[in-house]
Write a structure and sequence with these properties.
Helix 19 runs antiparallel to helix 20. The protein is an alpha/beta fold. Helices cover 49% and strands 14% of the residues. The chain has 3 domains: 218 residues, no CATH class; 90 residues, DNA polymerase, domain 1 (Orthogonal Bundle), CATH 1.10.150; 219 residues, Ribonuclease H-like superfamily/Ribonuclease H (Nucleotidyltransferase, domain 5).
Length: 581
């Protein structure tokens, strides 16, 4: 339910694997990185029950699928057989925790395997069940709740069919490895969630009943980019073929819907808007005039790039201020980049590599393979930087995107890093950190699909040749090293060496970007005079990934109960919209 487009394409692949559209399926994002880590969350919760709650008996039911398939090879019956065997165990009540429980609802056509079902005494002296699901994610999402509600719907149906008075009282999410280590689930009443699930499921079944492999899939632009999964290549193909507004860098799904409602459904139609129309069009669409101005310009430049084969560019109205804010060149300047993972296992390092290059190309690196070593790595880096600032008081630390600054803010909140609190605070108070992404975004409009470093670096350097070519690759390779080390450091490990090469390349690219910005933009400014006065002519340049990798800051203090209610409200809204269609 996270993506009607993905559901449709998955069914097409299952029923018509030779359909030409199925050839556009890509590899799983990040390989099986998240799948493997998700399995680990399950195992950690199992270990919690076994070690911390030895009085609770655990029954593992994952063998039931194999047993059922040996009894019958027909899909419907083996699902029913496996579920019947699981239900027998639940009703017998010889355990408190049931793991990997098959659940089948023949009337709704639902089948799934619940991670955990807990059998508990009810307030009236009877029995009640809680269904828990483990997730690697640290925040609840609406479709997590639909999955749990589906399990609850199945189990309630099965209990009623047996004449049992037991009920599914609650559903719970165990979010992340740390929560699993402590047996912590955030629960909601099952009856709060099930009605919204039924509405969504009814809508889903109607869509499935009308599935026509000769037809077109649902609009992929209604799906968040991350949720497109393996079908992202086909979605991009569709966007390109229909000149979709989704191609416009920085345009949100809500803005797209508003523009389409006003009759502007292609990138070229948005680009054709005249500046004199923007004020009236802003009132029609409900999109702010300044936002419309930026979106129109972005669409215009991307269209120019497509037609000319060379990347169009334009100085933004505030370019002079943005470029003037660049610090003066200093011999001590350094270029900084981090390699990390947004979801580290407990006690593991979140940032496993800190890399920095100097102006003369000397590269320094600090590695960390656990949380304490990570603190030490940052301390060592800060000590190195403090010493360098004594020699070069006017130096700055350049980076691309907000990730590096966010990492320092997180560290400043870390009780284990209070000894360097003042050193970190100084970086912000004295504006030592300079985010070149902000400089690019505030000074240049580029006819590119995104403003990530990999997009813009072809302006000033040849194509990369490192083995690791992106932050996602770095995470996967690092996880592979964690699972199967081929050496203890970067000198002895080919995997760590490839990550180091990539990080060094990012640092060097950031240095080259700064030089290019100074050269390119000074030329543009001197040739055009006041940048804020220009609004119509394009400047050519040359072109190519997505804005800087933004990783959710999961260190922010969270209110689990409030987050669960927020996910429930989003689910309620989705159900309401499904009924309105």
């Amino acid at each position: 339910m996270a993506s009607p487009f993905v559901s449709w394409m998955n069914r097409l692949l299952k029923e018509c694997p030779d359909d030409p559209r199925c050839a556009f399926i890509g590899p799983p994002p990040l390989g099986n990185f998240f799948w493997v880590r998700g399995e680990e969350v399950e195992q950690r919760l199992l270990r919690f029950f076994r070690c911390e709650r030895p009085e609770m008996k655990i029954m593992d039911l994952k063998h039931l699928i194999g047993e059922a398939k040996r009894q019958t090879t027909i899909e419907g019956p083996w699902r029913a057989v496996a579920t019947e065997m699981a239900l027998e165990e639940l009703m017998r009540g010889e355990a408190d925790v049931y793991f990997q429980v098959p659940l089948y609802h023949p009337e709704l056509g639902l089948f799934g395997i619940a991670d955990f079902i807990l059998r508990r005494p009810a307030a009236d002296g009877g029995v009640e069940f809680a269904i828990w699901d483990t997730k690697l994610a640290l925040h609840p999402r609406p479709y997590f709740l639909t999955q749990l509600a589906a399990y609850a719907e199945c189990l309630e149906f099965l209990l009623r069919a047996r004449g049992s008075e037991a009920a599914v009282e609650s559903i719970g999410l165990v979010l992340g490895e740390s929560a699993a280590d402590h047996g912590l689930a955030h629960e909601l009443s099952a009856n709060e969630v099930r009605p919204y699930f039924r509405q969504l499921w009814a809508r889903f079944r109607v869509a499935q009943e009308h599935f026509d492999p000769a037809g077109s899939p649902p609009d992929p632009a209604d799906t968040a980019t991350a949720a497109l999964s393996q079908w992202s290549p086909y979605a991009k193909k569709l966007f390109s073929e229909r000149d979709d507004l989704a191609l416009v860098a920085g345009l949100t799904r809500l803005q797209r819907r508003k523009l389409m409602a006003a009759g502007y459904d292609t990138m070229h139609s948005l680009a054709s808007l005249r500046p004199s129309q923007l004020k009236r069009f802003s009132k029609v669409t409900g999109i702010g005039e300044k936002s419309l101005q930026k979106l129109r310009l972005q669409a215009y430049l991307q269209c120019q790039t497509l037609s000319s084969g060379r990347t169009a560019s334009r100085l933004r109205p505030g370019a002079r201020l943005a470029l003037a804010a660049l610090p003066a060149v200093d011999k001590g300047d350094v270029f900084f980049d981090l390699e990390g993972t947004p979801l580290p296992p407990p006690q593991a390092a979140r940032e496993y590599l800190l890399g920095v290059s100097t102006r003369d190309g000397v590269y320094h690196d600090w590695w960390a393979h656990d949380a304490e070593k990570e603190r030490d790595a940052f301390r060592d880096f800060l000590s190195w930087l403090k010493e360098r600032r004594r020699r070069f008081p006017a130096l700055h630390v350049y980076h691309y995107g907000s990730y590096e600054a966010s990492a320092f803010r997180r560290l400043r909140r870390d009780p284990g890093m209070q000894d360097v609190f003042d050193d970190i605070t100084t970086l912000f108070q004295e504006n030592v950190l300079v985010d070149l992404y902000a400089v690019v975004k505030n000074s240049l409009a580029l006819g590119l699909p995104g403003y990530g470093l990999k997009n813009i670096e072809h302006f000033y350097r040849p194509k990369r040749e490192t083995e690791v070519t992106g932050g996602a690759d770095s995470m996967v390779v690092y996880q592979q090293w964690m699972d199967d080390p081929d050496g203890h450091d970067w000198q002895s490990s080919g995997k760590l060496h490839s990550i180091r090469d990539y990080n060094q390349d990012d640092c060097e690219s950031t240095r080259q970007l700064l030089s290019w910005l100074r050269r390119r933009c000074s030329t543009l400014l001197s040739s055009r005079g006041d940048a804020s006065a220009t609004d119509g002519n394009e400047e050519e340049a040359d072109g190519e990934e997505e804005g800087p990798d933004e990783v959710v800051d999961n260190w922010k203090a969270a209110n689990p109960a409030a987050e669960m209610q927020k996910a429930l409200r989003a689910l309620k809204k989705a159900a309401s919209e499904a009924c309105a269609v």
